[in-house]
Design a protein that fits this description.
Radius of gyration: 16 Å
Distance between the termini: 10 Å
Structural class: alpha+beta
Largest sheet: 6 strands, mixed
Number of helices: 5
């Protein structure tokens, strides 16, 4: 089994022109042509925290659907984190993950069946504080190790981490390898490798990178990152 996965901080669909354009972000998602996409800042922060891209727009104008995470009718995520999967993939389970935090942050987990094989996906948006990032990373890795059912796993998201060898990265790499995607922030001149993809030893990263289409360069202050991964023998 080979998968194409991606992670994208979509900044509530507000582009560099400061206009909220859900159709522009949806165009970027369609360009990615991934099996699974982890989104950050997918929901509006205030009010009913509705999805920045209406759910019916996602389902009508893309090959994706959102993994059910919360009971809010117009939201697709938890603290802005959401997971999209192609419509022909089976969603087994979805849930929010509660993180120690200084600011509103969180993570989401989905158990999926893709082309007949199970995979566990975590989408995350970590804290600006290095201390809390390390705690959050440790909690996520420990949580995966403690679950009753162990599955091949992929963790993706915006780590808010500018360091090359930070404590948070070391925590994730205890049991996962990091795809070498490259700098994705800020969009105008990418310098920071803030957006990351980690895979368990069940997978081999065949190819990875940053999506740099003209639309992506306008749609958010982050560029999407992606990886093609295959099940290891």
């Amino acid at each position: 089994m080979t998968l194409r996965v991606a992670s994208y901080n979509m900044r509530k669909a507000i582009g560099l022109d400061r206009l909220r354009k859900p159709d522009r972000v949806l165009a970027v998602l369609n360009e990615l042509d991934a099996d699974i996409i982890a989104l950050q800042e997918a929901d509006r922060r205030l009010g009913e925290r509705a999805s920045a891209i209406p759910r019916d727009m996602i389902e009508a104008e893309s090959p994706y659907r959102a993994v059910p995470i919360e009971n809010r009718p117009n939201s697709i995520g938890w603290h802005g984190n959401a997971i999209l999967v192609r419509k022909d993939h089976e969603i087994i389970h979805g849930e929010p993950l509660f993180l120690p935090m200084l600011e509103p942050r969180g993570a989401v987990l989905a158990d999926l069946r893709v082309r007949g094989e199970p995979v566990r996906v975590v989408g995350m948006h970590l804290d600006l504080s290095g201390l809390y990032r390390a705690r959050q990373a440790k909690m996520l890795v420990d949580h995966l190790g403690e679950r009753t059912t162990q599955l091949p796993s992929i963790l993706m998201g915006d780590l808010n981490d500018w360091m090359v060898n930070s404590k948070a990265l070391k925590e994730f790499q205890r049991h996962h390898q990091c795809a070498a995607c490259g700098p994705s922030f800020p969009t105008r001149r990418p310098l920071g490798t803030l957006d990351r993809i980690f895979v368990s030893d069940h997978f081999k990263v065949e190819e990875s990178g940053v999506h740099t289409s003209l639309t992506a360069k306008r749609a958010s202050d982050h560029l999407p990152v992606w990886a093609n991964v295959a099940r290891s023998a």
